[in-house]
Specification:
Pathway: Secondary metabolite biosynthesis. By secondary structure, the chain is of the alpha+beta class. The chain contains 22 helices and 14 strands. A hairpin with a 1-residue loop joins strand 12 and strand 13. Bound molecules: protoporphyrin IX containing FE.
């Protein structure tokens, strides 16, 4: 009998010890996880065999072990001894990332987290067993700034199967800073000038693509996606696709989509990547082919590859091919859907707000009357309303709506007066920050580009209501040393498209399209996804 009691105690003790090991070391790889969960119950089995047959003893030992292990995890995560216990949040999210994933996979995470902040009336909410969401502007600099936190474990999940990480995913701040150097060279003002030729060609092609479909329904989302992808391919690999010319006959955008489809699972449950098929493999294979072709072709003009591959001889040694491939692939993913999604949102918002559309078209006509080259960027700095329209669209629809994850490592950190314990993931919830009436008022949820103009001269605001415009709360391109390195290129590209497009065509929603359904199709799949935008294009000038 005493052996039975000893076996039981041993089983329980081993289960608690295993939980402690998981808690401290967080083993993820199957080669560690499987033995850790399968071997310990075999020890009490020896004692149990004196009392039971082998199958019964095995079931008993394993049943007790796993029940105690799971109960211990559940109790700890929900208990007041958990380091994040003092932060409010839904019970299921505290319990397991599985429930977090169930919420995220709906594509409504951006709205859900915003609601949680409102429900608990708190600037910090617990959105996972070990994850917090922040809504307070004052926490942006401490978390995202130079002395802030490194990237979080979601990037381990996103990159678990990659041969090597691209700059965006490095969790070591020193490595990140080093890998950022060629990007800084590739996307500084003078390098961007070199991409203008290709950009001009692609913008003209986009407008021709739309003009060729004048009078019939065309999906602006797809047209702009094709444009963005074609341009990023030119820029990253010196020419990659001809989607606007041929359509997506080779399924190139689908390859990128396949990666994004698995992003949520990989991001939310980083260890899951090791157990499920690798969604990014097709993209990586395609990238290796593109890079090898690009190297064979050489470069007739400076593209992104030129800098990433150290063809400018800025570094003493050139990186191996797999690093260049990883970075150039990132350019396609980070540069194309971000810009195209934002442009699509802008077109939607313009058509939904005819007064704003008219005002922007007037500004375009002022700087680029018919016959003027609207792709000459010289007037961009003077086009204040255009800048306001773009900023306002990005404020309402930031492309990484739930923020890019950061995490404390072995040491915790105090942000303002709140302590973030070690190994805690955190996000600045961009969507909530951008729509917080404490930062943008009045009408924080409405498209009102004028707020950006008024902010320059608040005394011009003629109303009884207060006017609030907190520029520090606008983080569409993120903040700190890992902010978006492509911001200037993205802004230039979007302005060129808008100038040329608004000069050449008029756009309206296609019949049968209900603009009020737009938000229902805006999804947070780590990057923001938008739905179809059926439009009718009419030329502004005779096409004879
Ligand atoms: C409207 C367009 C764009 C928006 C709103 C946008 C926004 C962002 C955001 C929010 C991040 C995450 C930063 C973080 O982790 O804190 C990011 C990173 C990045 N973006 Fe953009 N992006 C845009 C276009 C582009 C373009 C055109 C490129 C050009 C290739 C680009 C390249 C990158 C890269 C390389 C990173 C990683 C930077 C790093 O980790 O150091 N982005 N972007």
């Amino acid at each position: 009998m005493s052996h039975l009691r000893d076996a039981l105690l041993l089983d329980v003790g081993l289960a608690l010890l295993t939980h402690l090991v998981f808690n401290r070391i967080e083993p993820l790889a199957p080669k560690f996880v499987v033995p850790l969960l399968a071997l310990p119950p075999l020890i009490p089995l020896i004692l149990l065999l004196e009392h039971f047959s082998a199958p019964t003893a095995f079931c008993f030992a394993s049943g007790v072990f796993h029940t105690v292990f799971i109960s211990s995890v559940v109790f700890y995560r929900l208990s007041s001894i958990h380091p994040l216990a003092r932060y409010p949040g839904p019970t299921l999210l505290k319990l397991s990332t599985f429930f977090v994933y169930k919420k995220n996979v709906t594509g409504r995470r951006h709205l859900y987290i915003q609601k949680l902040h409102e429900k608990y009336n708190s600037d910090i909410v617990r959105i996972g067993p070990n994850e917090l969401s922040f809504r307070d502007v004052a926490s942006i600099a401490p978390i995202m700034g130079t002395h802030g936190l490194a990237k979080g474990p979601s990037y381990d999940g996103l990159m678990a199967r990659a041969v090597i990480r691209p700059v965006v995913a490095w969790r070591d701040k020193a490595v990140h800073a080093e890998r950022r150097l060629p990007w800084n060279r590739a996307l500084n003002t003078s390098a961007i000038k070199d991409y203008e030729g290709s950009l001009t060609g692609r913008v003209a092609q986009l407008v021709d693509y739309l003009l060729a479909r004048s009078g019939v329904e065309v999906d602006a989302t797809e047209a702009i996606k094709f444009f963005s992808y074609d341009f990023m391919g030119d820029m990253a690999f010196g020419g990659l696709s001809e989607l606007m010319r041929d359509g997506d006959v080779h399924g190139q955008t689908k390859v990128v989509q396949a990666t994004k489809d698995t992003n949520l699972m990989r991001e939310t449950i980083p260890w899951s990547t090791l157990y499920f098929p690798d969604g990014g493999i097709a993209l990586r294979k395609a990238a290796v082919t593109m890079a090898t072709d690009r190297i064979k072709k050489g470069n007739s003009r400076r593209d992104l590859f030129h800098y990433l591959n150290n063809e400018d001889d800025a570094e003493p040694t050139s990186p191996p091919l797999h690093i260049v491939v990883a970075e150039a692939t990132l350019a396609i993913v980070a540069g194309s859907d971000t810009t195209s999604g934002t442009l699509t949102n802008i077109l939607y918002l313009l058509m939904q707000h005819p007064q704003v559309y008219k005002k922007l078209q007037e500004e375009v006509d002022k700087f680029y009357p018919q016959g003027e080259n609207a792709m000459n960027c010289d007037f961009h700095p003077d086009m204040v309303f255009m800048e306001a329209v773009i900023n306002e669209a990005l404020r309402l629809y930031p492309v990484v709506p739930s923020g890019s994850q950061r995490a404390t490592q072995r040491k915790g950190m105090t942000v303002l007066s709140d302590y973030i314990p070690p190994n805690t993931s955190v996000r600045i919830h961009t969507w909530s920050v951008h729509r917080d009436p404490r930062n943008f008022y009045p009408s924080p949820n409405d498209f009102w580009p004028e707020r950006w103009i008024i902010a320059e001269k608040p005394s011009s605001f003629m109303s009884e209501e207060p006017f609030i415009h907190n520029a520090n709360a606008f983080i569409a391109f993120s903040f700190g040393p890992a902010n978006c390195v492509g911001k200037n290129l993205a802004m230039k590209g979007m302005k060129m498209v808008l100038c040329h497009l608004l000069q050449q065509v008029n756009l309206r929603f296609a019949e049968g399209f209900d603009p009020d359904t737009w938000d229902a199709h805006v999804k947070d799949y780590f990057m923001l996804e938008v739905g179809k935008l059926p439009v009718i294009v009419t030329p502004r000038v005779s096409q004879a």
